[in-house]
Amino acid sequence: MTLKLDVLAVGAHPDDVEIGCGGLLAHYKKMGKTTGILDLTNGMPTPYGTVEQRLAEAKKAAEILNVDVRITLDMENRYLENSIKNRIKIADVFRQYRPRVIITNPAEDFHPDHVACYQLVNAAVFQAKLTNTDSKFPEYYPPRVLYYDQSHIKKQRKLDFLIDISDSLEDKIRALEAYQSQFIENKNNNIIFSYIRDKASYLGNQIGVKYAEGLICPSYFRINDITMI
Ligand SMILES: [Zn+2]
User: Fold this and answer.
1) What is the distance in A from the centroid of ligand 1 to the CA of 36?
2) Separation of alpha carbons 228 and 220, rounded Å
3) What is the distance in A from the centroid of ligand 1 to the CA of 7?
């Protein structure tokens, strides 16, 4: 029987998920949840690295975050499109692994691949629940889609809640260090390590913990007991 996932994080490129919610993934795994990463492309070409190197880096990062599964689809980096063909491929992953929560790129971004990823994931959620399709997997309607607080638009986003990742920030940093080609060899991107730590520290301070990650939730969610908030 295929593994069912509690949390599946989806990104246009390898490293999107680590930047957006790497701490959350490591944290939930420590809580005994099942976690996974879905990359829509292999991230190549970029100024640094090769296809093989990028795949090896993504594999290493997944091991550091201790996720149960990492899947890389064969969509085209820099040409990502919200096509029916692509949404069916993603829907099949949702049908197979039946994630309770999906986390992906937010709607607003300057990077067209990230915007396409947002659109594709939401279209694939709809696609996954359809019956009478050619899919070899049964229909499934993922109950919740959230968005991580990361895009090429430099602004303060409205976040709907913060997750305490104090026990996992170092895992997130180490996972990002695994991307030697992107964040070490490309010296323009060295800043990411202090940026990630400072941001997690700022968000953590908002809720009285050391480090936190923020999420965007476009739909209401139910709270039964406001004295427990
Ligand atoms: Zn990206």
Assistant:
1) 17
2) 17
3) 19
Domain ranges of the chain: 7-228
CA of residue 154 to ligand 1 center, whole Å: 14
Asked which of 34-38, 170-174, 216-220 is least confident by mean pLDDT, the reply is: 216-220
What secondary structure, in 3-state letters, does 118-152 show? Answer: HHHHHHHHHHHCCCCCCCCCCCCCCCEEEEECCCC
pLDDT of res. 1: 65
CATH 3.40.50.10320 for the 7-228 domain, yes or no: yes
Question: What is the CB neighbour count within 10 angstroms for residue 2?
Answer: 10
Q: Residues within 5 Å of ion ligand 1 by Cβ?
A: 12-13, 16
Provide the CA 41 distance to its chain's centre, in angstroms.
13
Cα 13 to ligand 1 centroid, rounded to whole Å = 5
CA distance 137 to 182: 36
Q: Compute the distance from residue 208 Cα to the ligand 1 centre, in Å.
A: 30
Give the position of tokens 């202090």. Answer: 194
Q: With 90 as the cut, is the pLDDT of residue 173 above it? A: yes
Q: Which helix (H) or strand (E) holds 213?
A: strand 212-216
Tokens representing 53 are 């190197």
- For the entire predicted model, the pTM comes to 0.95
Stretch 103-125: mean pLDDT: 97
Are the C-beta atoms of 103 and 37 separated by less than 8 Å?
no
User: Does residue 16 contact residue 111 with C-beta atoms inside 8 Å?
Assistant: no
The number of beta carbons lying within 10 Å of the beta carbon of residue 98 is 19
